[in-house]
Design goal:
Order of helices and strands: HEEEEEEEEEEEEEEEEE
Number of strands: 17
Distance between the termini: 33 Å
Structural class: mainly beta
Oligomer: single chain
Largest sheet: 10 strands, mixed
CATH class: Mainly Beta
Number of domains: 1
CATH architecture: Sandwich
Helix content: under 10%
Number of helices: 1
Radius of gyration: 20 Å
Shape: globular
Strand content: 35-45%
Length: about 270
């Protein structure tokens, strides 16, 4: 009997392990394999130069190869100095709003960041609907933010009505990424009903737990869409000014992947 039971137990454990891996389903991705403008069936654009609530300087433009393009397997989002524009800069802010959104899941973006005083790249999420009123009542998930005057410090943050930077109660943490502008790193979140883990290269560095309160503390029970952009200047990115001699600056994205849960990797 013992000779037959042991192999059966081992086989069962292997099957459980394989099932655990297969349970992570790829829901949506962009591998940026076709040169040109970003895929119109996956991305749309925010457009304008009204400051975006932060006194930012850039004009976000639509479908401009100078500011957003796929090139050699990477998405390039590029902020450029342009004195013909009112505030002197152009950039791109592409997003999945109205095309794809998710409630819970594992979201990862492999990116190399721009550098220089005045740059403010972000990989972040906003809710698909306005259920509770204006910002920050519906919530915001900042998967990655970096401001150029503080090089190598990457931020992961959430904003809600109860927890946000305008009242000094935002919840987040920073991680050191010295080669942020030279190497690609994977920035991600693992978002469940119970918590949001923030990860860099697969390692958790911050966890925001569901407090059990109402939407003022946990509005993260609704679909959110993804946003990729570079801002110029602004209340945070421009705290030390904007260096006029560093442009253009780019954020390069190798891939974006959304799973229903965190994959189990070897």
């Amino acid at each position: 009997m013992k000779k037959t039971v042991i192999p059966f137990v081992l086989l069962s454990l292997l099957l459980i392990s394989e099932q655990g891996f297969s349970q992570a389903k790829l829901l949506w991705s962009d591998e940026f394999s076709v040169d040109g403008l970003p895929d119109q069936y996956k991305w749309t654009y925010d457009v304008g130069d009204h400051g975006w609530g932060n006194n930012e300087l850039q004009l976000y433009v639509k479908a401009s190869l100078e500011n957003s393009r796929v090139e050699n397997g990477h998405l390039i989002i590029e902020a450029r100095k342009d004195e013909s524009k009112t505030k002197g800069y152009t950039s791109a802010r592409i997003l999945t709003r109205g095309i794809a959104s998710w409630q819970y899941g594992y979201i990862e973006v492999k990116a190399k960041l721009p550098e220089g005083i005045g740059t403010w790249p972000a990989i972040w999420m906003l809710p698909e609907e306005n259920r509770h009123g204006g910002w920050p009542k519906n919530g915001e998930i900042d998967i990655m933010e970096h401001v150029g005057y503080d090089p190598g410090v990457v931020h992961g943050t959430v904003h809600t009505e109860a927890f946000n930077h305008s009242i000094g109660t935002q919840k987040g943490k920073q991680i050191q990424v010295p080669d942020f502008n030279q190497e690609f790193h994977v920035y991600g979140i693992d978002w469940t009903k119970e918590k949001i883990d923030f990860l860099m290269d697969g390692e958790i560095y911050f966890t925001f737990e569901n407090t059990g309160g109402d939407y003022k503390e946990w509005p993260f029970d609704q679909p959110f869409h993804l946003i990729l952009n570079i801002a110029v200047g602004g209340n945070w990115g421009g705290q030390k000014g904007v260096n006029p001699d560093i442009w253009p600056q780019r954020m390069e994205i190798d891939y974006v992947r959304v799973f229903d849960r965190k994959p189990i990797k070897d």
